[in-house]
Design a protein that fits this description.
- The protein has three domains: about 15-115, no CATH class; about 140-230, Pdz3 Domain (Roll); about 235-435, 2-enoyl-CoA Hydratase, Chain A, domain 1 (Alpha-Beta Complex).
- Helix content is about 35%, strand content about 25%.
- It has helices at about 15-45, 50-55, 75-90, 100-115, 125-135, 165-170, 190-200, 260-275, 295-300, 345-355, 415-420, 425-435; strands at about 60-65, 70, 120-125, 140, 145-150, 155-160, 175-180, 185, 205-210, 220-225, 225-230, 235-240, 250-255, 280-285, 305-315, 320-325, 335-340, 360-365, 370-375, 385-390, 410.
- Helix 1 crosses helix 3, helix 8 (about 260-275) packs parallel to helix 9 (about 295-300) and helix 9 packs parallel to helix 10 (about 345-355).
Amino acid sequence: MDYRNMNTVPPAAGPEQNEKNKNGKRQGILIGILIGLLIALFLVLCVKAGTWVLSRIPRKSSATVAGTDLPVIGNDALKKIRSIEKLIGANFYQYNDEVTTSGIEDGIYRGIINSLNDPYAEYFSAKELEGELNDIEGISYGIGVVVSVDEELRMPVVVSVVEGSPAEEAGVKSGDIIYEVEGESTYGISLSKVVSKVKGLEGTTVNLTFYREGEEDYLHMDIMRKHLIETRSVAYGMLKPEEIDGTEGIGYIAIETFDEATTDQFAEALAELKAKGMRGLILDLRYNLGGDFNASVEIARSLLPAGMIVYTEDKNGNRKEYTCDGKREFDMPLVVLVNEYTASASEILSGAIKDHNKGTIVGVTTYGKGIVQRIFSLEDGSAVKLTICAYFTPSGNNIQGTGITPDVEVEFDREAYDRDGTDAQMNKAIEIIKGKLG
């Protein structure tokens, strides 16, 4: 059974009725959350001088459809909100103390951003923003996993596991679905929310429930958190001739993510491999979820001929082009490995290589993230992340939702890899390089 093709969350082992109960409970929780948000919205207007808040809500937002401003709250909506506010103020009985002023306010801000129906748009409280910026800088207080979102299941999936991390020691594997954190379902929760729940103080433990393809039941693990600092995003080396039928000169570079240090690390790897006699290169972008836009562009400039790398267009149609002068064009056979977790900045690089016919793309269709986000800081230390533009490959393709189709499609056989290390995608890349080297 392939969980990526399922339209619902993976079923638990047990009677069918048990699953129905879970689904019913989940629906009840979702309805409760929606009602709670509505109550919270109007309660804060009572508790925190609602007229003052409403007078400061803009009548227009920066959200657009085809460049046209969308009204957020018009006069009719304001009138209705004030009517409901009066009803709540006169009738609502607060029967618990779990509601806080700051929590209500954050809920309002999140509601505005969530209404954009953009999974990449997000509101960060000041504390959450600090964690987000730490992630960008490569600092992590967690268990050592890279996660993405399974779009069909709407649940987080482990993309890769950091070597030597608590997650690796506990037996977590790439492809594992994080089903619950501390007993709470992850269904429909934003990725940053899941990550914040997994993170915590060093030395404390987090209880995670995983769904793994082929297992009869869920996997429950208590994993201790650890302070992890990722210092390298590039791994490289020469393939051993005795392992590839005596062929010499095939280099290998894997880029795990794009950050500020990636450009220099890639240049170092490329120079060292050339010095060792490299005659062809395999560039591995599998499980690379992206990262720094500019880093991927700079690496493209060390590989491509003169011309377009990528261009972006914002809500107003303003176009910004990123080009290459071709002075450092790579002059050896090149194969790029991609998979369903090759996303964003890594799709920029692989897309440009494909459009320029500079290398052979091998693997399966990529993730399909062709939009760019930016974090905007607010005066109180909080922030919002918004999608600000779409990017296009040199041939004018926006791959949002569709991804990049490989030149040679090869599926990854997880069972074969776990059994004896067989990597069908890597083997195909070696075969192509060897063919070009004669």
